[in-house]
Each structure stands twice: as structure tokens, then as C-alpha cells.
Amino acid sequence: MIGKRLAEIRNEHGMTQPELAEILSVSVATVSGYEHEHTCPSDESKVKIAKYFDISLDYLLGAVDEKRRLNRENVIVLEDKINSETREQIYQYALYSVYKQKENEAQKAKEGKPKRIKNIKE
Asked: Taking residues 71-93, what's their average pLDDT?
């Protein structure tokens, strides 16, 4: 899916494979490999693509069909040297942290709301 999306986005921007290759610091053959899904971009390249075209990684990866702007506040680039188990642990911790943050915000909002008092008619 990423190859199809990458070719689509590149063409929408009127960009050639050599131009994209230069931006990503890879060869034209590598970009062609991405687009024909013979190879997959590194996480670092995916982030570069998302930043350059201002799209979400969800869209680039085919998880959603709606183009969304990149949420730059939530992008973390991990070193390629980190093994898959550690990457998964980091990902799970990030999801948990977001969940807890939303839970805390909801609790604060709930505490900040005035309590409803029933109208008493005399």
C-alpha cells in the first residue's frame, strides 16, 4: 500500500522519482523499489516523506483513506539500531501514555464542571 500511496502523492505534487530520491537521500532505483513495493522505506524515510508532503503516517501507510496533515508534535524517529521488541515496547508505552493523558484530561474536565442542581419549584 505504501508504494501506491507514495507514487500517488509524488505525482500529485508533480515530482519525479529523481527529485524524490534527492530529498530522501536515496537512489532513484530505491524510490522505484518503494513505489513498486519491492522494498519498504525505513522509518526515517517514512517520516521524511510525511513531513515533506505534510501528510499523516496513517495515510502514507494506508491505515486511513483521508489525507490528514502531519501532527508534527507526535512524531518520534527511532534509530534503526533498535530491535523490534524494543520498538514494540516503546510503541505500547506511547499508546498507554496517550490513553492516560486523555483519561486525566477527561477527569479534570469533569471536576471543573459545576454540579447540576435540580430546579425546585415552590
From this structure: 73
